[in-house]
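User: For my dataset I need records formatted as: sequence, then structure tokens, nothing else. Please produce one.
Assistant:
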Amino acid sequence: DYIFIDTAGLRRKNKIKEELERYSIIRTVTAVERADVVILVIDAKEGVTEQDAKIAGIAHERGKGIIIAVNKWDAIEKNDKTVYEYTNKIRNILSYMPYAEITFISAVTGQRLPKLFELIDMVIQNQNLRVATGVLNEIMTEAVALQQPPSDKGKRLKLFYITQVAVKPPTFVIFVNDKELMHFSYTRYLENKIRDAFGFKGTALRFLIRERKGDQ
């Protein structure tokens, strides 16, 4: 069974009183928190609005599965590059969630609506995916061999161990000698290596960096 939780339908401030707007945002946040997968419906003619970006940010922070459904695709004039160009535009605006799945639909014609359920199933599966510790450490060892961890003032970051501690979203703990040396870009590099191996499409990944006592 699929339970769809509709949001309050956020509108621009000039169309609605401030108080009602605030209530709508609270309802939207509540809907996002109750959901396993958030389907962000974008109007193909309008593109990603400020409100769309706001909801996307909330869903991303909460670690939800995310599908971006571009609606009214039937109303857009298309050539062979339209999907590619539109996808790039969305990726640029919502650059912090490159993992989000994008699909082009039409509520009027029913275009690709059945496909939406396949995407939901896939995203839920990825949200609950667990990777064995041994496999994770193999990926990490290979990643470190390919690109040396950063160093600062003669001290180099050492990565000892990685393990998955949670799902929804998949959450990993990396044990290191000095977490100050664990630069965001290196965490992103490791995330990309894990995604290369397991996909994790449609879901954020979380990384917690811990220092292992006595290891320097």
